[in-house]
UniProtKB/TrEMBL annotation:
One MF term in the entry's GO annotations: hydrolase activity
Superkingdom assignment: Bacteria
SUPFAM superfamilies to which the protein is assigned, alphabetical: SGNH hydrolase
Keywords linked to the UniProt accession: Hydrolase
Domain SGNH hydrolase-type esterase as annotated: residue spans: 6-187
UniProt-listed Enzyme Commission number(s): 3.1.-.-
PROSITE patterns per the UniProt record, alphabetical: LIPASE_GDSL_SER
Coiled-coil region list: none
The protein's name: SGNH/GDSL hydrolase family protein
Amino acid sequence: MKKLLFLGDSVTDAGRDFENDRELGHGYVKMIAEQLGKEDVTVINRGVSANRVADLHRRIEADALSLAPDVVTIMIGINDTWFSFSRWEDTSVTAFKEVYRVILSRIKEETNAELVLMEPFVLPYPEDRKEWRGDLDPKIGAVRELAAEFGATLIPLDGLMNALAIKHGPTYLAEDGVHPTKAGHERIASIWLEFTK
């Protein structure tokens, strides 16, 4: 039985029930599990709303290492950008990358898991989201560099979601530029399946 673990923030969390380990929320993780239903896999969602890379680091033991996963998918970083605008909490790209590197090093050293890194993304709606690019783009660059460094599968979600936003309009995928609609989650699930097959 292959164990697939998903780590991240509210995009991954998607309203999951923290009291029930088997409950996957209503987002892309659940949709992936449904697609893989006939395969011999266990899907685990450990997304936590509002998490930044430092929060993920703090819970890495309980929510990743202790579960002995076979594949770990991580999507983290949008809150590191968001909070720098909403709470004036600056997260430098250097700090972001170093903490992310520690997380990946521990997973590599303490499990046999394959790594899948999904870029954090933001769509250009509302208008102020466009200002986030200057902060988010270097963090996306860091995720790409870490994927290369650790031999991880990289899912270039930011570019793919923005391309879809040009085609369908950003609110079709995420009404606030960040939190996916049902259609947005469906696209993320299909992108994940495409890149990991």
